[in-house]
Amino acid sequence: MNKTELRKKYKTLRIDLSPEVIEEYSLEIANNLLKLDIWEGEFYHLFLSIAEQKEVDTEFILHILQGKDKNVVIPRTDIEHNHLINYLLTETTKIKKNRWNIPEPVDGIEILSEKIDVVFVPLLAFDKNGHRIGYGKGYYDKFLSTCKPDIIKIGLSFYEAEEAFEDVYASDIPLDYCITPKKVYRF
């Protein structure tokens, strides 16, 4: 299948997920993250889930990061320039949903992408080669291309890997890991 077909398939699969299943799977994903040797970094980039899209609930991961006293960095979408601006999450950070219902920081302390050690990447699907399919706007591939070369890229998925994608582009940046409720994939 190509990316368009896979996007449609996984959006449809998510529609049927109940809030209870999303919570259960999201907790299992967070618990599986604890098996990884990724906790030496200082700055951890975490997307805030779009509830309306039935994404992995990253609140459990946020609690792990805060419990480990890590600096959590959250993105805001710069629609005009088609890129992400990253802010340090603090006790005073104000969060507001944008026009796509993405919870984002209103403002705050901007963190350069070169400082980030680990990034948790949203996705709809991924394959056994570490390629991911997002919503198709390229925000994360563009963002990841500005990060340091050794940044750890971790996808989060309710579903297991597809065999391989037909239409992978040179600008697609593969994951290092993808975490599902049942398995940890290493690429």
TrEMBL record:
Its EC number is 6.3.3.2. ATP binds at K3, T4, E5, L6, R7, R132, I133, G134, Y135, G136, K137, G138, Y139, Y140. Pfam families: 5-FTHF_cyc-lig. Substrate binds at I50, E55. One of its GO terms (molecular function) is ATP binding. InterPro entries: FTHF_cligase, FTHF_cligase-like_sf, NagB/RpiA_transferase-like. It comes from the Bacteria. GO terms for biological process: folic acid-containing compound biosynthetic process; tetrahydrofolate interconversion. Its cofactor is Mg(2+). It catalyses: (6S)-5-formyl-5,6,7,8-tetrahydrofolate + ATP = (6R)-5,10-methenyltetrahydrofolate + ADP + phosphate. The keyword Metal-binding applies. Keywords: ATP-binding, Ligase, Magnesium, Metal-binding, Nucleotide-binding. Belongs to the 5-formyltetrahydrofolate cyclo-ligase family. This is 5-formyltetrahydrofolate cyclo-ligase. It comes from Zunongwangia pacifica.
